[in-house]
Amino acid sequence: MKLGIIGLPQAGKTTIFNALTRSTRPLAMSAGRIEITTAVVDVPDERLDKLAALFKSKKIVHAQISFADVAGMGSGEAKGLSSQLLNALSGMDGLVLVLRAFEDESVPHPAGRVDAARDLRAVEDELLLNDLIIVERRSQKVSEERSKGGRDIPTLERELAFFKRLNDTLVANQPLRTLQFSEDELSKLNGLGLLSAKPLLVVLNLGEGQAEPKTETKLPVLGLQGKLEMDLAQLSAEDAQSFLQEYGLTEIGARRVIRAAYDLLNTQTFYTVAEPEAHAWMLARDASALEAAGAIHSDIARGFIRAEIVAGDELLELGGLAAARDKRRLRLEGKEYPMKDGDVINVRFNV
Ligand SMILES: Nc1nc2c(ncn2[C@@H]2O[C@H](COP(=O)(O)OP(=O)(O)O)[C@@H](O)[C@H]2O)c(=O)[nH]1
Ligand SMILES: [Mg+2]
């Protein structure tokens, strides 16, 4: 899972990036410059750890998320985003928009005053404008092709209709993510760098002890005390725990963001566990056992016969596969079985 952290200059993108990835990037002021830094983090997963202990697994492989700190938005470019920025962002599965809510006189706001709702509109507008420019350019090209009689006309007409639908949505100030797309259309959108189609999570960067200001938006919003979380991320797990209590927090911010990202991208976890390796995998929430097999290896999907499946929590409770089989909690399922979060799977296959 790849997430791009975006926002206006000085909103706290790098601060949040450091908090999420336990990095120590300097918070240098580099207004206007395009800078992209990436770090990969293991998704914390107690169930995986317990399963690994139960199976005495030699190796534990966590699911991973890559976070990119993407500076360079908010330049107010009328031509849309630069191609460097677009390239970086179009490869992302989702975007995390950091909005400044903290007050701090030593940190000037590019617009003079802290106003998270205004900044949200500004960034959304920038994404919409970028998409509009791309859509107009593309549909113009296709129109020209049609008038020259290039390719087959029905295909061109279909493409034009698709671009018109996008254009109408953008002109009405609606992000493309409000539309329904087929898989095919979605990959086309990503290829074109249409960013308002991407799932977007808003992170409100709060000052210490600051209450979450109300933001009128349909987007998922998460409040995080960025600076505090960045400091916490540098501590050992034990020290962080005692600090969390001191600050009245129940959980480290990175975990809340990761959970929100799983929701945002409609993602769930399943496991394969054995003595050599305990492995957590990401999967779409509506995916089948066959698709789970495909996530492990295309050969396993190709040769799929049946899958042995047991809920990870039940497996832990019962203390092992033998007990799960005795209690009939370990079932044999076919390709169509809808995977559930936390399932442990063992695919029987033949290639
Ligand atoms: N007081 C306070 N300052 C913050 C907070 N988050 C970021 N800052 C400061 O705001 C400035 C910009 O932060 P940075 O993460 O570099 O923003 P970026 O430009 O979006 O990457 C830095 O001086 C940070 O120390 C916060 O939650 N509280
Ligand atoms: Mg930065």
Structure characteristics:
351 residues, 21% strand, 6-stranded mixed sheet, Ubiquitin-like (UB roll), binds guanosine-5'-diphosphate, alpha/beta, binds magnesium ion
Instruction: List how many beta strands DSSP finds.
Output: 12
Q: Looking at this structure, what is the CATH superfamily of the domain at 286-349?
A: Beta-grasp domain
Roughly how much helix do the residues carry, as a percent range?
A: 40-55%
Shape: flat
Instruction: Give the ligands present.
Output: guanosine-5'-diphosphate, magnesium ion
* Largest beta-sheet details: 6 strands, mixed
Name the CATH class of the domain at 286-349: Alpha Beta
Structure description:
By secondary structure, this protein is an alpha/beta fold. The protein has a domain at 286-349: Roll (Ubiquitin-like (UB roll)), CATH 3.10.20. Helix content is 41%, strand content 21%. It has helices at 13-21, 46-54, 83-90, 116-147, 153-171, 183-192, 226-233, 237-246, 253-264, 289-296, 298-302, 312-318, 321-326, and strands at 2-6, 35-42, 59-61, 64-71, 94-100, 200-205, 221-224, 267-273, 277-284, 304-311, 331-333, 343-349. The strands form two sheets. Strands 2-4-1-5-6-7 form a six-stranded mixed sheet, sandwiched between helices. A hairpin with a 3-residue loop joins strand 8 (267-273) and strand 9. Helix 1 runs parallel beside helix 7 (226-233), helix 2 (46-54) packs across helix 12 (312-318) and helix 4 packs antiparallel against helix 5. The two termini are 29 Å apart. Bound molecules: guanosine-5'-diphosphate and magnesium ion (MG). Magnesium ion binds at residues 13-14, 71.
